[in-house]
Amino acid sequence: MLTARTLAYDILKEVIMHNRYSNLELNQALQSTTLSPTDKGLVTTIVYGTIQHYHLYHHLVSLHFKQEKVATAEHILLAMSWYQAHFLERVPDYAIVNDAVDIAKHLWGHGKGKFINALLRRLLTLIPPSDPVEVARLSHPQWMVKMLESQWGSDTASRVMTSELQPPIQHVRINLQHLQATQAIASLNLTPGHLSPSAFHYHGSLFLPDTPWFQEGVLSLQDEASQSIVHHLHPQPNERILDVCAAPGSKSCQMAELSNDQATIIAVDIHPHRVGLIKDSVTRLGLRSIQPLVADATKLNYTLLGGKFDKILLDAPCSGLGVIRRKPDVLLKPNGNYMDELLQLQIALLDNVANLLLEGGILVYSTCTWNRKENEKQVEQFLKRHTDFELVNQQQILGPEYDTDAFYMAQLRKRTL
Questions:
Q1: Biggest alpha carbon–alpha carbon distance for the chain
Q2: How far apart (Å, rounded) are the C-alpha atoms in residues 103 and 86?
Q3: Mean pLDDT across the stretch 287-302?
């Protein structure tokens, strides 16, 4: 029988053992399950919370259980159980242990169930540190701690790491032009955000994609720091706008809503299945101004695109260090070497889209990270290579400031020569 904990375990195994993306695995599983909204919320909490505290769990285990031989699949079950016992309220230990033993028996047999039962009862005595800052430091890989402290200082680093372990507020984007916008805001008891007029916070327990407000295009799920990026582009009717690396399409659709669906927006992504996500959102929201396109943005040619653009948004592939609350998988990476290729890809994307912008046009470069090498330093080097561009404004939003994801934005103008 499928329970919240068995589903959470299945998702965690895919993420930790097979390098799947937690948010994609979670979304797919929740959309296809018949679990109640409350159980869906529990699955989400267990999956994200276990990944966020996986380093802390292993740190404590290494100090007290050095002789135990435990397979990775078993560690996942133990870690998610240990997380629930120490970080979730109103969940009795006996229920956690019983469910873990049932899962072990089902997967590995009665004998392994006894082993998990005995080991888990000992593991539950491992108490995490009482200091939230120490918990945060031990829950992050050391390469990330060192990078964050070297770039931002120890105090800011501590605040950022602590905030990354907090459950995210559910942010939504309301299409304020929709006839039912006011009704949706009142019905869901939404509270206004801080960074965008269309940003609201939802504090209820409903699985929002199942609600008519989502299905009929009144609201979309989007962090408000992400929403703030589009406002720096100021999309207007009759403008030609290019959205590069656009999937899953949140910012493209937001641009269409802000321009009263009267701009021409070409939304490009290299992956066909992700362009399919853009098309799904366009259909759900009933938008006509967006043209999804499968293409490599490092090789785009303005002739093939029908001319140059008034405005371009490059929400670049990045390290994802700013969205750990929603995509904690990066905490499982053994080092930061994966960023090297991303830095080169960002350079290639910036250099190519610079050629697609009209003189006097605006290019907004954004990332969901606090890493300065991908942000300020990347823009600084771009301006040295492209002297026909000038920096109008840049902004770094860190998670603790507004209880959001971390986002960087640089607004660049192509000079009229």
A1: 77
A2: 20
A3: 94
List pLDDT tens digits, range 95-110.
Answer: 899 999 999 999 898 8
DSSP H stretches of helix in 53-179: 54-64, 72-87, 93-108, 110-123, 132-139, 142-152, 154-164
Please name the residues in contact with 179: beta carbons below 8 A apart, sequence gap of 6 or more: none
Which pTM does this prediction carry?
Answer: 0.91
**Which backbone phi and psi does 190 adopt, to 5 degrees?**
-75, 145
- Best CA proximity match to 315, nearest among 277, 269, 283: 269
The DSSP output letter for 328 is G
CATH number assigned to the domain with residue range 4-128, chosen from the 4 options 3.30.70.980, 1.10.1130.10, 3.40.50.2000, 1.10.940.10:
1.10.940.10
Number of H helices, E strands in the chain: 18, 11
The pLDDT value recorded for residue 246 is 95
Q: Which residues contact 3 (CB under 8 A, 6 or more apart)?
A: 39, 99
How is the chain split among helix, strand and coil, in percent rounded to 5?
50, 15, 35
In sequence order, which ranges of 243-364 are alpha helices (DSSP H)?
250-258, 272-285, 339-353
Domain 226-414 top-level CATH class: alpha beta
Domain assignments of the chain as residue spans, ordered by start: 4-128, 133-164, 226-414
Structure-token match 């992700």, residue found = 274
Residue 92 binned pLDDT confidence (cut-offs 50, 70, 90): confident
DSSP 389: E
8 Å CB contact between 353 and 39: no
Which DSSP symbol is given to 354? G
Judge residue 179's burial from the number of C-beta atoms within 10 Å of its C-beta, 0-12 exposed, 13-18 middle, 19 or more buried.
exposed
Residues counted in the chain: 417
pLDDT at res. 32: 85
